[in-house]
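Q: What does the assembly look like in three dimensions?
Context provided by user:
Components: two
Sequences:
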Amino acid sequence: MKPSKIPRVVIYRLSIYLRALNSLSADGIHTVSSESFGKLVGVKPAQIRKDLAYFGQFGIKGVGYKVQDLLEKIISILGTERAHRVALVGVGNLGRALLAYKGFEKRGFQIVAAFDPVHCGKKAGKNGPAVSHPRDLPRLVGEQKIEIGIIAVPAAGAQEVADDMVKAGIESILNFAPVRLVLPEKVSVENIDLSIGLETLSYALKTES
Amino acid sequence: MKPSKIPRVVIYRLSIYLRALNSLSADGIHTVSSESFGKLVGVKPAQIRKDLAYFGQFGIKGVGYKVQDLLEKIISILGTERAHRVALVGVGNLGRALLAYKGFEKRGFQIVAAFDPVHCGKKAGKNGPAVSHPRDLPRLVGEQKIEIGIIAVPAAGAQEVADDMVKAGIESILNFAPVRLVLPEKVSVENIDLSIGLETLSYALKTES
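A: Here is the predicted structure of the complete assembly.
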């Protein structure tokens, strides 16, 4: 099976496995049974086996998974063993939150440029880059070897920002604006909707009462 | 089938359908074919039919879905036709971003109280509530009839905040801290990891090159 044929949801679950493995590793745990690991990530052991089988043979019968081995393998599958260079467009509250969020750097993503017409000239956060004007996006994407763009602007401006990113050569976009972007097929887009979690909770509240 | 037996992923997809229906409705579109709708949400028409079948009969053969009807039905399934009252703990960058995020209120969630030991006394954002000290959580959860808690504190403090929320009577938690919370079974938790989207993009970058 060609890597590109692997279902997106499998890649998504690999991210979840990675998060759990990192926390096991931080706790000094070297091996984990497939049952314990399944409980930890909320996925049935058989599904975990199936997900990992796309990439090779993992886990030892009667022992489980070796934490460090599986962790390194998943990092290599996801391609985060080297840092990806990221541009952020929108340095409002959400943009500043993303700049302050330590989880990105820890997992191999470095925000090396930030853009905002209002805040340009200032520093983006304590250790962040200086904020540039969006018109400098094409130049900085080239100079800074940026591969990924994060959109943290309001819905109304998101499509224009995405178009500018694509024109500047970015083909991977993480979109926080609550809008469906229309982009060429070669561009990968991940949408994060901060309210979806709340709707799931609302449903749980309803079925309890 | 009892409502509580409905897979979580179905509820998650209902949120996505709702988002698409809202945007169709905003564009003045009254009906949508199951094929077009499938493309819009990135889910196969057969899967959409299967998801909706948990809740009744939707869609008209040869016509598709009536946008407004389906929208109202999903809102009623998710239980967001009345506003849920939400408490936010952590008014740092992420907390302020969540306060400024218009998507919550639009979808039936109102942040009526905010807590932070550092920022207490100040207003949380332009139109936000005054920030209270976390010790006032139990009292305000009762007084303000709060049902949902959002955790926007660093990983190290998240478990303690979650424990305090549960002691105060909150049974639904949206957790942004990159840590797995250990909580009683009756408590529903949704975890949002801002970096999972980036990992999916990293994988896409890798398989392209």
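Follow-up: Chain A touches chain B through 65 residues (CB under 8 Å).
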